[in-house]
Amino acid sequence: MARSPGGGGRDRGGRGDRDKVESEFTDKLVHINRVAKVVKGGKRFGFAALVVVGDLKGRVGFGHGKAREVPEAIRKATEAAKRGLVRVPLRDARTLHHDSEGRHGSGKVVLRSAPPGTGIIAGGAMRAVFEMLGVHDVVAKSLGSTNPYNVVRATFDALKAQENPRGVAARRSKKVSDIVARRRDGSVAVEGVGAEG
């Protein structure tokens, strides 16, 4: 049976291509948890890892992996994170377009856009998400649960609510400049609407 050229080394060639594609993503380990299963002979230890992956340009994802060894748990979590990437619109590739809130379980987060030079003001698990997302200026507060799984999921819930002005303008049949002007000076826009009626 004849094989096509390169067919025998398909795995080796494919792996090299995959590394080039995946190199655009960076990952950050958020939390590692040692879990024990009690069996007849004693305890069997395993590890659960929570990893956030992003391209630093507006795409981010998180994953959870469990294994008997730490490196294997991290690898599984990284693969899961790459499968569930979310695109988040950023303003000036620097901050969020608007404030938003997210919830998951008893975890609640509040995200606020910030002026240049503010930096990432966020704690623990949220900081990792913003770093992998490529946000440079943001103010965030985590309320309720401090469990990193709940905080990360609540942060993703808030990020999924982000919209860019172009999408809002298209949905409302308005110009982008009207939406951005209202954001820049909301009080004048509201007074103008009130004066018309």
Give a quick rundown of the structure.
With 197 residues, this protein is an alpha+beta fold. Helices cover 40% and strands 32% of the residues. A hairpin with a 3-residue loop joins strand 5 and strand 6 (95-96).
* Low-pLDDT sequence parts: 13-21, 186-197
Reading the helices and strands in chain order gives HEEEHEEEEEEHEHHHH
* Strand percent estimate: 25-35%
SS elements, strand count: 10
Number of helices: 7
Helical content (DSSP H or I, runs of 4+) = 25-40%
**CATH architectural name of the largest domain:** 2-Layer Sandwich
Principal-axes geometry comes out as elongated
CATH structural fold name of the largest domain: Ribosomal Protein S5, domain 2
Largest sheet: 4 strands, antiparallel
**Domain tally:** 2
N/C terminus separation: 82 Å
Task: Name its key features.
197 residues, alpha+beta, Double Stranded RNA Binding Domain, 2 domains, four-stranded antiparallel beta sheet, four-stranded mixed beta sheet, elongated
Describe this structure in words.
The chain has 197 residues and is α+β, with helices and mostly antiparallel strands. It has two domains: 10-86, 2-Layer Sandwich (Double Stranded RNA Binding Domain); 90-196, Ribosomal Protein S5, domain 2. It has helices spanning 10-22, 70-83, 124-133, 148-160, 165-172, 176-184, 186-196; strands spanning 26-39, 42-54, 59-67, 86-87, 90-91, 95-96, 100-104, 107-113, 120-121, 138-144. A four-stranded antiparallel β-sheet has the order 1-2-3-4. The termini are far apart.
Q: How would the blueprint of this fold be written?
A:
Layout: H1 10-22, E1 26-39, E2 42-54, E3 59-67, H2 70-83, E4 86-87, E5 90-91, E6 95-96, E7 100-104, E8 107-113, E9 120-121, H3 124-133, E10 138-144, H4 148-160, H5 165-172, H6 176-184, H7 186-196
Parallel strand pairs: 9-10
Antiparallel strand pairs: 1-2, 2-3, 3-4, 5-6, 7-8, 8-10
Helix pairs in contact: 3-4, 5-6, 6-7
